[in-house]
Amino acid sequence: MFALVPASLLQLIAVEPTGGDVFSGGTPDDWPGGRVFGGLVAAQALGAAVATVDPVHRPHSLHAYFLRPGRPGTPISYRVDRIRDGRSFTTRQVVASQEGEAIFSLSSSFHRDEEGHEYQLPKAADAPDPEGLDEGPFGRMTALRHIDLRDVGPTEPEADGTYRSTRRVWMRCAGELPDDPATHACVITFMSDMGVVMAARPPRDSVTWEAMMGASLDHAVWFHRPVRADEWLFYDLHAVSNHNARGLVRGLMHTRSGVLGASVDQEALIRPLRGSGPRSWAGGPELR
Asked: Tens of pLDDT along 246-266?
């Protein structure tokens, strides 16, 4: 068992009530790239929704749109709209704003546990163990120091030039979390946006990130089974389509034992830059 998560991680994703169904979340002022990490905004928005829901209803999905870049060092206000409270399902809408300007919107659904059939896609048979793997560029970012990452890399191209996986990574919270399932869902939401834009293009693409502008457009997460964010999760991502400066990515998160905990879809803006000026996206869209 490893050490408890430093309070700063839980504080990072935490939101505080400010009256009614409005909550406030902090943002670090030293985040790389000059904008707030989208996974943080999504995690805080889900946390705000969770605070208005009976705990017997657990998060089972979220669908979000990134409207404007968040400004580091400026608090974010989360207004929750109670769309529906049902016996089996509960629905919430959240709008995140900075200084009166909407930057993010999220719809989330919650489900009471019930019996049903069991089926899942398996974890990739060639997934290596995380021990001994390099942490990769994200693991060396001080802003993400509370997330333990082990980069696996893409699969080899198929005969037709497509890739089964364009990015594979082991990830976990670098410390022990409380048992509360909602906390794990929020941390998984945070992690689910890490490096997804980088998986939106096939590795064979000859255009470097220095010549691209990338940003998350919309993001969806389905929580299939309760899994712990402080234990290894294998995040297996593959590019579905690139067209019209947009890339669609799909990903699965399996536990080390093969339980499918969550799946993710994201569409990203991948816009070629023109001219010879300085490139602000060197090393990947979420590294600068």
From this structure: 999 999 999 999 999 999 999
Q: Which domains, from first to last, does the chain contain?
A: 7-113+130-272 (2.40.160.210)
113 is catalytic: no
The tokens for 235 are: 């995040």
96-136 pLDDT, tens digit per residue, is 999 999 999 999 999 999 999 999 999 999 999 999 888 77
Total length of the chain:
288
Query: Is residue 133 left, alpha or beta, with left meaning phi > 0 and alpha meaning psi from -120 to 50?
Result: beta
Question: Would strands 147-151 and 260-272 be described as parallel, antiparallel, or unpaired?
Answer: unpaired
The SS3 call for residue 8 is helix
From 98, 216, 230, 236, the catalytic residue: 216
Q: Considering 77, 98, 165, 266, which one is annotated as catalytic?
A: 266
Q: 10-36 as b/e, with b when 16 or more CB fall inside 10 Å? A: bebbbbeeeeebebbbbbeeebbbebb
Q: Hunting for tokens 């980069």 — which residue is that?
A: 151
**CA nearest to 42, candidates 108, 110, 138, 141:** 108
d(CA 97, CA 74): 10
Half-sphere exposure of 133 (CA within 13 A, CB side): 21
- Name the one residue in this structure whose structure tokens are 């297996």: 236
Residue 21 contacts residue 79 (beta carbons within 8 Å): yes
- By the 8 A CB rule, do 63 and 220 touch? yes
Please say if 266 is a catalytic residue. Answer: yes
- Give the active site residue among 151, 193, 230, 236: 193
* Amino acid, single-letter form, for residue 119: Y
